Every structure is written in C-alpha cells, then in structure tokens.
Amino acid sequence: MKPNQENGQEGTIPLGRVTLQGELIIPTGAKGIVLFAHGSGSSHHSPRNQQVARTLRQAGLGTLLFDLLTAEEEELDMRTRHLRFDIELLAGRLGDATAWIACRSETKHLHIGYFGSSTGAAAALVAAAKLGEKISAVVSRGGRPDLAGPALPEVKAATLLMVGERDTAVIGLNEQAFAKLRCPKELKIIPRATHLFEEPGTLEEVARLATEWFDRKLQR
Fold this sequence. Notes:
Layout: E1 11-15, E2 18-25, E3 32-37, H1 47-58, E4 62-66, H2 71-80, H3 87-103, E5 111-117, H4 119-131, E6 135-141, E7 158-164, H5 168-180, E8 185-190, H6 202-217
Parallel strand pairs: 3-4, 3-5, 5-6, 6-7, 7-8
Antiparallel strand pairs: 1-2, 2-4
Helix pairs in contact: 1-6, 3-4
C-alpha cells in the first residue's frame, strides 16, 4: 500500500498469515498517526470513523483505517457474531498493523495512537497494554473498554474514554473500566448523545476532543 496524501484509496496490508483491506493517509508534515479499531459488525468504511479521521488529518495527523477481519471472517461473523468479541484476535491484528506501520519508511518516525469504538476499544487497550511505550495515546468512542479486562491496569498510553450521555448502560461499563486504568486518563460524557452519536453536533464534538487529545499526547 502506498500512503495517499489526498484522496483515500483502498489498499492491502499484509499481516503474516492474513491480508487485510485498509486506507493509509499521511498529511504532509504529519506529527503522528492514529490507527482505527472499528466496532462490532463495522468496517473501515464506517462513516463515523471516516468523519473523525478527516478531522484528525486536518490537524496534521496521519490515519490508518483497516478491517480487523478478512472478508471470509467477516462473512462468518455476520452469522455467528463471535469474532467481533474475540478481543485477543482483534488486539493481535491491531498489534500486527502497528508493527507494519513502524517498519515503513514514511511512518516509522511517527508517534502512534489508537482510536477504538465498540469492541474495537477493548482491542485497542489490550494492544496498548502489550506494546507499552510504543503507543502514546488511546481514544475510545462509545466503546467497551471493560472487555479489556486484566489488561486495563497495564495500559501506559494516555487514555480518553468518550460515551454518550444517553448511552446509560455503556456509561456504567466505561466507569468500571476507567477505575481500573492506571495511566493518564479522562472520561468525557458527550451531552445529548446516544450510542452511535447520531444527534446533531455530537460526533463533531467527539472528533474535536479526540483531535485535541492526540495533538497533545502524540507530541511526547
């Protein structure tokens, strides 16, 4: 895959035994890069993640949006719904993608952050716990960080959890996970927002807060 400076174009990411589809865009003079871990039943075409990614790029951050599962695995998961909850598998794929980014000449110098949603947030935290200082920041949007379980106290990356004000069940799960984190951390409740942040202005607020977080934390 060649990084695209302007219009996002599809490419493949070879990760050992599997090849995944993704989109790598590096703005000129990028000061960091954010890898996206999408949620249950989604893909790197997720309009919500794409919107956040555009905001990050406008702030001078590179983005990698990619599918955590192969096409065959996605088809299986649509029937069984079990792979989307295989956090170790998803975290492993994210870790492999991180290694791939770290080996590329145009990205190996960039500080790395993760943006996770739904079960992808748990995968991001598990991967960050395993990779330690290699990951500078994690942001979760409507995520299930509780599914990261025993990895939570091991996370070193500065972590921002964002949940919709009307997503009451997920707020509780985020509060439980937040209490177990030992890294620099913040929990933001987005006013008026439900789980998918479909209310006017709520996703824009997520993108703004995520951009500010990564802009600060990927400088260290």
